[in-house]
Design brief:
10 helices; elongated; 7-stranded mixed sheet; two-stranded antiparallel ribbon; 9 strands
Length: about 300
């Protein structure tokens, strides 16, 4: 029996609901648009039209994949972040609404500068770096990423969005700070891995498909914040800003660590759930690095 577009969409939604997939209506709608090119308006106007059989098979195959927990974004192959499209897939963290809070804080601070020098640490898909580059055309943005898979997406997304003022750099945030002179940047922004190691396997099943190295923040979730604040903080000019995305309970320890390393005017921005999702502060002085210290244990 030939199904109509409306029936395909509804059956997809019902299958997702039975599998316990959150936002089943939204996911079925996006997959309908992805496969058939029919958005909500098209379903209202033309939902009674017969659906192509081959496309139906593809659609229900994707519905079955989604039921396993595979992220919708990986299935579609791209996702929107602050008005820009980003290619995504296995090996790269999916851009999320939470990250927009930190990106907006960085935009507010850098927007007051004439031609800011910015570095995005743990850049991943490049969502933050590319957005800053596009919205601050006079900025010079560096995007640092270690993962081979994520770096490939970073390069593609810079090209996709025509962000010519964004330079991708392959490197490890835990050691690459030596590649830049002190005072090299006006603003540092980062959405580092910040989930407590033992909590990762207890989170929603979709996260099992995303790269663990982009999630794992060590025993207390603060491993990368400590490295960036201490060693990358010296790469800011006096008066430069450091902006983080922070986890739900991490603003206070991150704030205290920043204060110990010369940051003042430390503030935060709330996400839609009321969590202090972005933490930022201004550097008042440059501290000499003590490279012989072994403060950070591998996890």
């Amino acid at each position: 029996m030939t199904l109509t577009l409306e029936e395909v969409y509804r059956q997809g939604r019902q299958t997702l609901e039975r599998a316990g997939v959150p936002d089943a209506d939204f996911d079925s709608l996006l997959l309908t648009e992805h496969v058939f090119g029919a958005d909500r308006t098209a379903l209202i106007l033309h939902g009674d039209r017969p659906a192509d059989g081959e496309l139906c098979r593809r659609f229900f195959s994707l519905i079955d994949e989604r039921c396993t927990g595979r992220p919708l974004q990986y299935m579609i192959g791209k996702w929107n972040f602050m008005g820009f499209d980003f290619l995504v897939g296995e090996g790269v963290l999916i851009p999320r609404d939470d990250t927009e809070v930190a990106c907006e804080a960085a935009l507010e601070l850098a927007g007051k500068m004439d031609a800011p020098r910015i570095i995005d640490l743990c850049s991943g898909s490049g969502a933050i770096a590319v957005t800053l580059g596009k919205l601050l055309p006079r900025a010079q943005v560096t995007a640092l990423e270690l993962s081979d898979e994520a770096f490939s997406y970073l390069e593609k997304n810079i090209e996709l969005n025509g962000a010519k003022n964004v330079t991708p750099v392959k490197g490890d945030v835990a050691s690459a700070y030596d590649d830049w002179e002190d005072g090299s940047f006006d603003l540092i922004v980062s959405n580092p891995p910040y989930i407590v190691t033992k909590q990762i396997d207890t989170l929603q099943r979709e996260l099992a498909f995303e790269p663990r190295m982009a999630l794992d923040g060590g025993e207390d979730g603060l491993y990368f914040y400590r490295i960036i604040t201490k060693y990358w903080g010296t790469k800011l000019r006096k008066g430069g800003y450091l902006v983080y995305e922070t986890g739900e309970d991490e603003h206070e320890p991150v704030r205290d660590d920043m204060a110990e390393h010369g940051f003042v005017d430390i503030g935060y921005k709330l996400d839609l759930q009321g969590y202090k999702r972005a933490t930022f502060g201004r550097q008042t002085s440059l501290f000499e690095k003590r490279l012989d210290e072994k403060l950070f244990k591998p996890f």
